[in-house]
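We modelled the chain as a single entity of 189 amino acids. Its sequence is:
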Amino acid sequence: MSRLLRYFWSGIFVIAPIALTVVTLVWLFEGVDGILRDYVKYPGVGFVLVLATVVLVGWFASYFFMRRMFKVVDGWIEQTPGVSFIYSTLRDFFEAFVGNKRRFNQAVLVNVLAEEVWMMGFLTSEDLENYKLGEGYVAVYVPQAYNVAGQLYLVKRDRVRPIEHLASGEVMKFAVTGGVVDSVDTGSA
């Protein structure tokens, strides 16, 4: 009986990530495709149209004239009460990951809670003059495992060690999975 139970749990651990990925992709596909369902009769065409629109907006945004126009629209939204807070927070969040102001590109180990306890994080600012902590302090964002949250710590520079031998994406993957995903391909098989 215990062997059957072990096989059952092994099967769950194999099937669950695959099934949840498929369900999420189907949900996303149907949601985006459903936006244009009244206008487009063929399944999948709405999804392709939305993706093409996003790419087209990105292409237009790369031209000088369009960048200026987007800055004007951005300024209008920034001045709209209520909407400004939501928009600027989301804009800054996306820029921190993929924009010109990308902030999660310098992975570090940070010592915050105890002498020999280190957390993985990302150096997000080395200029904390506004907080009057002195030039010896830096800002380190520490993501939480299996969550979209994290903590921002303002710590002394000597409590931070750079992780230079790993890509930031690998460190993020390791941190948000609670360390269960190997961040280094050792090449051994």
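As a brief sanity check on the tokenised model: Residues 185-189 have pLDDT under 50 and may be disordered. The chain has five helices and five strands.
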